[in-house]
Amino acid sequence: MATGKIGRLLIVAAFALAALTGPVAGRPDAGGDRPVLIAGYDGGQLYATGDYRLVILSGSYHRMGVQYGHLQADAIRDIYRRLIAGLVGDDCRYGEFRRTADYIWRGYPLRYRDFLRGVAEGSGLDLTAVLMVNNLEAFDSPIYGSGCSFLAVTGRYTAGHRLIWGRNFDGTGNRFARWLEVRVLRPADGSLATASIGICGAFFTTTGFNSAGVWLALNNAGPGSGGGQRLFAPVTLLTALENSPEFSDLAMWLDTVRPDVPFNYLIDAGDGHQAASFEWHADRTVRRDIDADLLAATNHYLSSSWPQPVGMEGVESGRRYQNLCRLAGDRQGQITPAAMCDIMSVPLAEGGTLFPAADGTAWQVVADPAAQTIWLRSPLVGERWAVVKLADWW
């Protein structure tokens, strides 16, 4: 087993080779081979899946962190170098970044802190550097000002009446899209295994599945209200996935735990057969179930029970919502995962939801949740979609 700098160079070289010769899923109807193994370390594995990475981690949280830090050391170090370069000379922004990183750290359960300490140990970086990288997605994400789009369809909309969903994650990670990953945690403590999709180094969940088939996707819904400090919402979502063997369990989490102030969210969630959008507010949660076989969500609340509008029209939330409904209607009875990839990839200027690179659709995910299979891509990296059959990795 290769270790140290030589081992990490081998990992980088192997990943570059796999990116040239490894599987290309293209469109979901084109199939796709299994991911290509790049490296292993102490029970963890790193794979190339098309242009992206799949990381499989097993054991205690500290052990999984060491595995992750070792296997993804090149990515974590690259992100840290670029991140620091962008903050040099801007003391105000650097201080704000550090404060956000510390806020997220304080809200982590002890086992998650053990994971991040393990990442520092495995990567050779100090814990402060690891926490800076961990904060990147949160600091520049839709949680802080850009939009996301989500569409789920079933019944009369889909071929075979299956539930199919797609989401565009907007507003973060443009410089780091090449490090898009699927991170699978298989804890030894009895928690459910989870898969989170996002930029390398971010230890929380804004798009994820668990081994019981429960899934979720976070959309921002603008500034919230209330006071005090609460746990960072994407950390709560990871914990909820680890402890929700049924969709009803996740719904209970969202109805019980309030998100961090001062932000509002839409949590799109479900299992292999049902979907709902939870208008997750600092004061209460309102559930909106799939209706007439369609559920769309962007960045504003739709339930009439709110006393005043909640959301972000500044990112054309209403327009994108209407576009999703129209695009789904245009393909009624014909939507497959491949068709969903096409729908989510229609540019905003052409009647869709995909933001141009300057505005920031960072990555996209399409899912067949009953099959526990996802397709992902970053339009900033390329046109190819990579496939991951999550059911193979639990």
Walk me through what this model shows:
The protein is an alpha+beta fold. It has a domain at 145-171 and 215-233 and 245-380: Penicillin V Acylase, Chain A (4-Layer Sandwich). 33% of the residues lie in helices and 25% in strands. The chain contains 10 helices and 16 strands. Strands 1-2-3-6-7-8-9-10-11-12 form a 10-stranded mixed β-sheet, covered by helices on one side. Strand 2 (44-49) and strand 3 (52-59) form a beta hairpin. Helix 3 (73-87) crosses helix 6.
Q: What percentage of residues falls in helices of 4 or more residues?
A: 25-40%
**Any idea of the CATH class of the domain at 145-171 and 215-233 and 245-380?**
Alpha Beta
Q: Which second-level CATH architecture of the domain at 145-171 and 215-233 and 245-380 applies?
A: 4-Layer Sandwich
Rounded radius of gyration (Å): 20 Å
How much of the sequence lies in strands comes to 25-35%
Q: What's the CATH superfamily of the domain at 145-171 and 215-233 and 245-380, by name?
A: Penicillin V Acylase, Chain A
Strand segment tally: 16
Shape: globular
